[in-house]
Design goal:
Blueprint (H helix, E strand, L loop, with lengths): L27 E5 L1 H4 L10 H6 L1 H7 L3 E4 L3 E2 L11 E5 L6 H13 L3 E6 L9 H9 L11 E2 L22 E5 L5 E6 L14 H17 L3 E4 L36 H14 L5 E4 L6 H5 L9 E2 L2 H4 L5 H15 L7 E3 L8 H4 L16 H17 L3 E5 L20 H4 L44 H4 L6 H14 L10 E2 L6 E6 L2 E6 L5 E4 L3 E5 L4 E3 L2 E4 L3 E6 L2
Parallel strand pairs: 1-2, 1-13, 2-5, 5-9, 9-10, 10-11, 12-13
Antiparallel strand pairs: 3-4, 6-8, 7-8, 14-15, 15-16, 16-21, 17-20, 18-21, 19-20
Helix pairs in contact: 6-7, 12-15
The structure holds alpha-D-glucopyranose.
Alpha-D-glucopyranose binds next to loops.
Length: about 550
């Protein structure tokens, strides 16, 4: 636990970062999954003190900001995305003083801190929900959630046909205080995650207060969990179809991407703008199209939204070009930066996605060709970091970590895994703790083992094994992030100039900068555009021609 004692000075200033206007328009934001980053107290579980101790590593990596997945008080039914107290740190991660120390230290190093906000649902252990259950039908607290009588003769059927994202019905029937089977409540995720009723004014009041609590703590922004889910269609209408998971992200649903959510974000924006410094909101909004995603980042709403269409695109030049163009076109009219992401805590790591044949989606259970996957992952990262806008990196991708596809059933913790049909049942594979050292207890993650087992050979991928090693994935990320800071052509912007390129190859120019990504599976000869700044694999040049090998991205500076 930290020895830090609270300093009366408000923790709002970034000590070493000169005011960089619009920093978020080109920021590289690193996602820390606190359970799996670094364990400061040796209990096998990552914590805030662990994160704090590794902040210098993140500064040296060259990222601008750190987004922390939830560390709030939680029974951990969904790894902290089930919050029981939005204003407290779970003891397994530390306490509020640790959070304060972490924010201060980050600011001192020039790093910004973004925290996760989970407004769609609470934990079933949140005080409102516990009281709603205990007080029985008619309790005013039930109105803050979606409680309904069941259908059927004795109320034995769920109130509508909605399915949980994690599989099974989105409704659970409660046992009333008198012991009889009673009403049902809505949970789009696990039963331990009841959905709030955002039509109730107390819910909005509570979240505005929670925003202020963390803004006063000095955070630089919020990642909004399930930002597309808060408002449900009037009357909670049936969908009239089963297998609803297939529709997620492909269609507007009565529980997702309803237009009513935008009024909430416009209100939140006015709160954020009251605070000094440029603080930001980023939406986790799964919508059918990038055009609908753009609605979340209109000038008076949120700043950024994750680009899941990009994350879901295979390693294919034509498909990548299409999604890049469409994204830039969708963001231009609203004036928001495009964002790019390849991995996060909910999907198979991109080194493993690209090791497998295309078309398998973002949850993959086979290791595939690891060498090929890593080669493509490195190329995909260089492409992503060359695009205009802001990019997200998920912890461990800078080490080229693959997904751990062979975790034994008995160690798995993902609630979706246990609900069978869930879309995301294999998320533990990207959550295995990070290797910091070649050997030793949990490869430097901590002194007390690791909550998910790390595979053999994990130490070969460690920070220690890659640091200072020319050509390592870690050094590739460091060089890319350093170049991004130095090259005026990189970072913010809303367009690229496409260059002619052979089939399977993407080539574009941004001012004095050219990026070429060869997805074709074969080496190609191209004009040498200028001086090679960086490449994900070796490029040879002769007589004004460059040979770009298969699955390689090259950056050039051009006069
Ligand atoms: C988001 C989170 C995911 C979580 C879900 C429910 O999609 O990223 O990890 O399970 O919301 O909160």
């Amino acid at each position: 636990m930290s020895q830090h004692s609270a300093d009366p000075a408000p923790n709002t200033a970034l000590a070493t970062v000169a005011a960089h206007r619009d920093w978020w328009r080109e920021a590289v934001i690193y996602q820390v999954y606190p359970r799996s980053f670094a364990d400061g107290n040796g209990d096998g579980m990552g914590d805030l003190e662990g994160v704090r101790s590794r902040l210098p590593y993140l500064r040296d990596l060259g990222v601008d900001a750190v987004w922390l997945s939830p560390f709030y008080a939680s029974p951990q039914a969904d790894a902290g995305y089930d919050v029981a107290d939005y204003r407290a740190v779970d003891p397994m991660f530390g306490n509020l003083l640790d959070a304060d120390a972490l924010i201060r230290d980050a600011h001192g190093l020039g790093l910004r801190i973004i925290v996760d906000l989970v407004p769609n649902h609470s934990s079933d252990q949140y005080e409102w929900f516990r009281r709603a259950l205990a007080e029985g039908p008619g309790s005013p607290l039930r109105e803050r959630y979606h409680f309904r009588p069941g259908k059927g003769e004795n109320g034995e059927l769920p109130p509508n046909d909605w399915e949980s994202v994690f599989g099974g019905p989105a409704w659970t029937r409660v046992t009333e205080p008198d012991g009889t089977p009673g009403e049902w409540y809505l949970h789009l995720f696990a039963p331990e995650q009841p959905d709030f009723n955002w039509d109730h004014p107390a819910v909005g009041d509570e979240f505005r207060s929670i925003l202020r609590f963390w803004l006063d703590m000095g955070v630089d922004g919020f990642r909004i969990d399930v930002a597309h889910g808060l408002v449900k269609a009037e009357g909670l209408p049936d969908l009239g179809t089963h297998d609803q998971l297939k529709l997620l992200g492909n269609d507007v649903m009565p529980f997702f991407d309803q237009d009513g959510v935008h009024a909430i974000y416009r209100q939140w924006r006015t709160i954020l703008d009251e605070y000094a410094g440029e603080r930001i909101f980023v939406a986790e909004a799964w919508t059918p199209t990038v055009e609908r995603t753009a609605n979340y980042v209109r000038p008076d709403e949120l700043h950024q939204a994750f680009n899941f269409q990009y994350l879901s695109t295979d390693w294919d030049a034509a498909e990548l070009r299409a999604v890049i163009e469409r994204t830039l076109e969708a963001m231009r009219p609203v004036g928001a930066p495009a964002t790019w992401v390849l991995s996060n805590h909910d999907v198979t790591r991109h080194a493993t996605r690209f090791a497998n044949p295309p078309g398998l989606g973002t949850q993959i259970r086979t290791a595939g060709d690891r060498e090929l996957g890593l080669r493509r992952a490195r190329a995909a990262t260089l492409l992503m970091l060359a695009l205009p806008g802001s990019a997200y990196i998920y912890q461990g991708e800078e080490l080229g970590l693959p997904d751990v596809v062979d975790l034994p059933d008995e160690v798995r913790q993902d609630p979706a895994y246990f609900r069978g049909a869930g879309q995301d049942g294999f998320r533990d594979g990207c959550r295995v703790p990070i290797p910091w050292t070649r050997s030793g207890s949990s490869y430097g993650f901590g002194t007390g083992g690791s909550w998910l087992p790390q595979p053999a050979g994990w130490g070969d991928l460690s920070v220690e094994a890659q640091q200072g090693v020319a050509g390592s994935t870690l050094e590739l990320y460091r060089s890319a992030l350093a170049a991004r800071r130095e090259q005026p052509g990189l970072g913010a912007g809303d367009s690229v100039e496409w260059l002619r390129a052979p089939e399977g190859v993407l080539a574009f120019r941004r001012g004095g900068f050219v990026c070429v990504a060869n997805t074709s599976g074969e080496s190609v000869a191209l004009p040498a555009y200028g001086r090679v700044l960086l490449a994900s694999a070796e490029v040879t040049e002769a007589d004004g021609e460059a040979k770009v090998p298969a699955d390689t991205t090259v950056w050039w500076t051009v006069d």
